[in-house]
Amino acid sequence: MGNKNGVRAYRRSFGYWFRQLLALPGAAFDYAVGKWAAMSASHAMMEEAIPLQLSASAVAKLKYAWSKQITFPSPAMAEGWHERDLALIARIRDETAVYNRNNVTRTEAYRSVYFRTPELHWALLAHIVSRNGGWNMTDLQGEWLPLLLNAEQREAVFRFLEKANALIFQDAYPQLLLYEWSRREGRSLFHLLPAFGVSAFMAPVWKQFWRDRDAVPLTIALIVNEQHYIEQRVVQHPYFREKVLHTLFFGLQSLLQLNGVIVPYGTGQARGEGASVLKLSGLILEQFENLPERIEFGKRLYAMLFGIPRVYDGARCFAGAVKHTGSRVDYAPYMFSRVRQQLPHSVYKERLLGGRLKLGAEPLYSPELGAAWNDQPLEDPEPGDWFKSVNQVWPYFQKLPLPHSFEITNEYGLMLNKIELAVLAMQRGK
């Protein structure tokens, strides 16, 4: 109850600072103009959209397969695996372990898979989401969050992000490699999925994709699978519920818009400046604890990334050209710096105006992942298959809507202003 009261109190306090933000000369006007520009840009890009098509017949076939409640034998009980199969299983496990070292190696692994096999849409989606996960991790040791959270709190949030990131990779990456090996050998190898603990839910999906090469139902299925996979292992885990999800900080996530996924998609000119700035698309997830909302969020993100040509082209170019380091310098070098400009414990002074650095202001500190966190040992995931019946998954295959508004360059600037104001309010309240 104390946390909820704290959130409400902080919201009242933050409401004051937000009103102060809009009271700045020209800020309210700039905000309104920015919102209108974002909606206009989203509308213009929507007119060029090529919406992804979810085949009713493909979904019907999957529904039939799922309704038979196919279950896998345990890896130890599986029969019919030849020496060649066992060698491939060992090779995929070794490669997965190598790339599951940290967020940077995972993100690169997803990127490499997508550029080798672009029919695997989920690999690019996972790459973009994993980039955001890395930026969220380094933010915990960056300019602002150490002023809002103590070391123990930041450690808990990092462990939460890291475990979800690592578990999803551990489950999904072997599936992607099995497809690549199937393509290389010219035969389906999806009978080996049980060796990696993959849910029975995915077997008919991969077999259908091998036949039809329809990326849409496969991508939705992977979104559904991975969010179910982390539901009990991370989201409902007692430690993370107490230390992260039920804390004051996590309660402020929606208010500060820290739980969004941004997708850099192009460059433009900052008004009145010569610096080149990235244009950003993306979405905000309101309730991370809600499993259906996480899945629908992933679907909307997928529909945007692959259904809006300008977003897809820009995101693909960014993924191919810019190496992921975990630092926000990767996409905004005019705003962030990998090197801290001030002493860690010095009093923070306001640097932003209208979501951009003031003239002469020092850039915000955003370290690379290796400078922020050490690699974490991986634990074996809890055994068990989340898939129990077709009713669990059928609703997610009814439609794949495009989001109405997704151009968030201006919203991103406002988010930065919100966090800075939160820091200033925290300092003035001490």
Write a short abstract of this structure.
With 430 residues, the chain is mainly alpha-helical. It has helices at residues 2-23, 27-47, 56-67, 83-99, 103-116, 121-139, 145-148, 151-185, 202-212, 215-235, 238-245, 248-251, 253-256, 291-307, 309-321, 369-372, 409-429, and strands spanning 260-269, 276-284, 336-337, 352-353, 356-357, 364-365. The longest helix is centred in the middle third of the chain and has 35 residues, at 151-185.
Report on this model:
It is a single chain. With 430 residues, the chain is mainly alpha-helical. It has one domain (2-429). 57% of the residues lie in helices and 6% in strands. The protein has 17 helices and six strands. Strand 1 (260-269) and strand 2 (276-284) form a beta hairpin.
Give me the secondary-structure category: mainly alpha
The unreliable regions are 268-275
Shape descriptor reads: globular
Sheet-strand content, in percent, reads 5-15%
Q: Cα distance, first to last residue?
A: 23 Å
Main sheet: strands, sense, barrel: 2 strands, antiparallel
- The total number of structural domains is 1
- Major sheet strand order: 1-2
- Give the averaged pLDDT, no decimals: 87
State the share of residues found in helices, binned by percent: 55-70%
What Rg do the Cα atoms give?
A: 22 Å
Tell how many strands the DSSP assignment holds. 6
Order of helices and strands: HHHHHHHHHHHHHEEHHEEEEHH
